[in-house]
Amino acid sequence: MFAKSYKITEPKRFEIFVEDVRNDAVLVRPEYLAVCKADIRYYLGNRSARVLKRKFPMSLIHEATGIVIRDRSGKFKPDQRVVLLPCRRAECEGNKCDICVRDDECLLDNYCPESHFCSSNYDGFSKELMDISDEYILPVPDGVGAEAVFSELISVGCCAMRRAGLTKDNAPESIAVWGDGIMGYIIALVAKFSLDRHINVIGLSEEKLAMFDFADVYYSNDIDLLPRMSVAIEAVGGNASGIAANQAIDKLYSGGRLVLCGVANDNIPLNTRMVLEHGLTIMGTTRSTRCDFEKALELLQIGEFRDRILKLLLSTVEVDDIKKYYEVFEKESKSTALGKNIMKITF
Amino acid sequence: MNIAVVLAGGSGSRMGMVDRPKQFIDLYGKPVIIHTLEAFEINEGIDAVCVVCVKEWQDDLSLWLKEYDIRKVRWIAEAGASRQLSSLNALDAIRDFCSDDDYVIIHDAARPLVSQKIINENIAKVREYGACDTVIPAHDTVIRSLDGEMLESIPQRKELYLGQTPQSFRYSIVRKAYDDYFALPEDERPVMTDDCGLVLNSGVEIGIAMGDKLNMKITTMEDLLLIKSIVRTGI
């Protein structure tokens, strides 16, 4: 059947594509979409021209929920709401790379170089209809509404906890999270609710830090007040991620762990002398995979957690044509607010 | 209940083809009519579909319905000599199945790019008004000429829209309009090119559902070329 999709063809240029969508697996109508910073980088052209040329045209958006239209396997019912998973498992037999990480419990397909990721090196969810394998959808639990669109971000937080080996049984008494943006907020919230520990958050914006009412907050320029810790999570990203990471290195106890979650634009200098002196462990984590989404959906069923996620939903814009789609990208690319203006698509 | 009626009774004479009507042309691996039926098949608001089809193509249609797993088609009605007679045959075919308060969504088989949004808006508007037409604003200036030689007038563009399908009606409304129309002696029946014209002629108010430029009808070879260039395959 024919269906429309919106694809970016050059920075600040979306075009309507009409594609013939097959229905071999689960036919899904994307419902709520949220724009990620990575989408905005493509929209603004903040990647090298060579990279952009290789990727365009491409449908953006990897944070989405959808509604099942028809499932050939019968596992999902028509009208069932689902979360769409963006990581696409490699189609190789696990013998393409020297070391296959696809089935490594800590890394999984998320770190497999042969995997694809929607709106990065694979079409994203800006589509009227999609045929999607049941591997890449999960049911939205009853009682969870449009906020399910934040599942992807929550799953990234869950992935960080999993990758860092942090559980309720072994996590230290307090955890520090650098970053007062949406990723910092969600990672702090995931740490709070999945580990049940005291959370310290370090940020710059008084207005944003005021929203972290489940944590103790510290200003980045008053870092001396922050107690030392054994686990620090950097969720700042951008050019400031280096400052955050170095502050964390200074504050970690010997043997402590620094988990890097923010995406830096450029290479950042780190105080490796301190890393050596204190025997610190630095690890990176990004994106997520199916098991992290399952954990995210469990968290969304906790009322208090869900209420705090709902605060991130600034507005819902009904997108019934490409003009509205542009408007949301413009709004999100200029927004400094803690939260997102999400789309409900009806095009 | 919402019943879609897909009109596939055309001959394709304006395309110059002799082997098959336009609605049965292959478009990227499927007959045009199957693309159209798929749009209604997946729409949550459509309960059943009646296809009006020329007799000699009904066997082919039945095979395609199986091949492409189209399950909502419950009736294949015979095409009439005119669009009105085809619609009437569909209304007769579904008569025992639906009540006066059910809705009929009538669509051209040769418009395969009908979107879910258009179908949904038809369902919403027909429930609100009892009858609705799908239109798009006229972006070009429309010229009126009575003889095809001389310009007669230039109507105000902002008042003009171009009609598409679906056209949707409460069953009782469209039924009465058709019964009244065919009760007239043949030479007294006004010339109508679509179902909305006939319903409007019976004094019923008709709401407007916004269509889409892409919801174009394959009438000529140029239209087919346009549709083929719009649809991107292999993605």
Provide a descriptive summary of the structure in words.
- The complex is a heterodimer of chains A (347) and B (235).
- Chain A is α/β, with parallel strands linked by helices and 347 residues long.
- Chain A has two domains: 2-139 and 313-345, Quinone Oxidoreductase, Chain A, domain 1 (Alpha-Beta Complex), CATH 3.90.180.10; 155-284, Rossmann fold, CATH 3.40.50.
- Chain A is 27% helix and 28% strand.
- Chain B has a single domain, classed as Spore Coat Polysaccharide Biosynthesis Protein SpsA, Chain A.
- Helix content of chain B is 32%, strand content 22%.
- The mean pLDDT of chain B is 94.
- The interface between A and B is medium-sized, with 22 and 20 residues.
How is the topology of this model organized?
The complex is a heterodimer of chains A (347) and B (235).
Chain A: E1 2-10, E2 13-20, E3 26-34, H1 37-44, H2 49-55, E4 63-71, E5 81-84, E6 87-88, E7 116-117, E8 130-132, E9 137-139, H3 151-163, E10 174-178, H4 182-195, E11 198-203, H5 206-209, E12 216-219, E13 229-234, H6 241-251, E14 252-260, H7 272-277, E15 281-284, H8 290-300, H9 303-310, E16 313-319, H10 322-334, E17 340-345
Chain B: E1 2-8, E2 26-27, E3 30-31, H1 32-41, E4 48-53, H2 58-67, E5 73-78, H3 83-94, E6 103-108, H4 116-129, E7 131-137, E8 161-170, H5 171-183, H6 195-201, E9 207-210, H7 221-230, E10 231-232
Parallel strand pairs in B: 1-4, 1-6, 4-5, 7-9
Antiparallel strand pairs in B: 2-3, 6-8, 7-8
Helix pairs in contact in B: 5-6
